[in-house]
Amino acid sequence: MTAMRANIAMHQAPKTACAQPQKGTTLLEFALVLPLFLVILFGMITFSVALYNKTVLTMATREGARAGAMFVQDRTISMIDSAATATALQFCQNNLISFGPAMTCNVTPSIQDSILTVTANGTYTGIYVFSGIVISAQTSMRLE
To answer: What are phi and psi of 111, to 5 degrees?
Structure first.
């Protein structure tokens, strides 16, 4: 029986014929998986920012409808429209996020049967494939 020293046996790699060709396999697998991983990562980031912008547009239409629906003595329809539009646009300017040029918000109020409806929409500019997404929101409130 041959005694083998433990410290030498632990440091030696197995001597097989297959060991030499597998030298760069890990690097090759990393190079193949990395682009897919980055596309998924940037897609998640872009989608979550688009979802955030959808929430901002919804909140902007609520704020605009609330500002227009509040009771003011001797108000006109143009005063209601301008209050709703100004409030919604201000909210959009302060809170919208974009990766490219600034996302602009289009706000259109309308009144029918003493119900104020505020609609806001904008085109989201994301990263590469995910750009050009149209996001919109609408809120209706009864005039006081």
So the answer is: -120, 130
Q: What is the pLDDT of residues 30-76, one digit of tens each?
A: 999 999 999 899 888 888 988 999 999 999 999 999 999 998 888 89
In a domain? residue 78: yes
- Domain extent, residue 84, equals 37-142
- Residue 98 in domain: yes
- Tally the domains of the chain: 1
Q: Is residue 72 part of a domain?
A: yes
Q: Is residue 5 part of a domain?
A: no
pTM of the model: 0.76
Encoding tokens for residue 71? 């009771």
User: Which of these, 21, 24, 22, lies nearest to 32 by C-alpha position?
Assistant: 24
Buried-state track 96-105, b at ≥16 Cβ within 10 A, e below 16: bebbeeebeb
DSSP 8-class letter at 80: H
HEC string of 20-53 equals CCCCCHHHHHHHHHHHHHHHHHHHHHHHHHHHHH
User: 43, 130 in Cβ contact below 8 A?
Assistant: yes
